[in-house]
Task: structure prediction
Amino acid sequence: MSGQNSSARVNVFTAESTGRIDVAGAVGSMALAMYIYDIPPGGGACPYHYEYVEEWLLVLDGTVAVRTPDGELTLEQGEIVCFPPGPDGAHKVMNRSDAPARFLMFSQLGTPAVSVYPDSDKVGVWATEDDTGLFFERSNAVAWEHGEESWDRAD
Result:
């Protein structure tokens, strides 16, 4: 496949990080999004959100707390969970321990991509793989016909 390099590799245990490592990008994946996250004690990795693709989390080192719609989970090294698409898969990953934590998140790669942030009532949209995202407050949404005054005419 174009973009893939069979000799490119990342050691998920020893790779140097400043918070997040794009593993899939480093090895040239065309099908998966995969990131290593390092979070210090008392830190968090992302706001509470859900996406419309299945996401997986694997704890590589330490312990993380995960807020879900069903409550909070504590995951330790070697444990893996799957977040389903949509609101049932909402999650926030935090480090409530006294030691650093490292985990791997992965999902299907694809655009456009949408994330919903229930706590802040925002939606994030990524139109392309290189897009940094656009974020909108749902309370400021407009009707689909807004600005489309002549949509129903042939002019």
User: Anything to note?
Assistant: The chain has a mean pLDDT of 91.
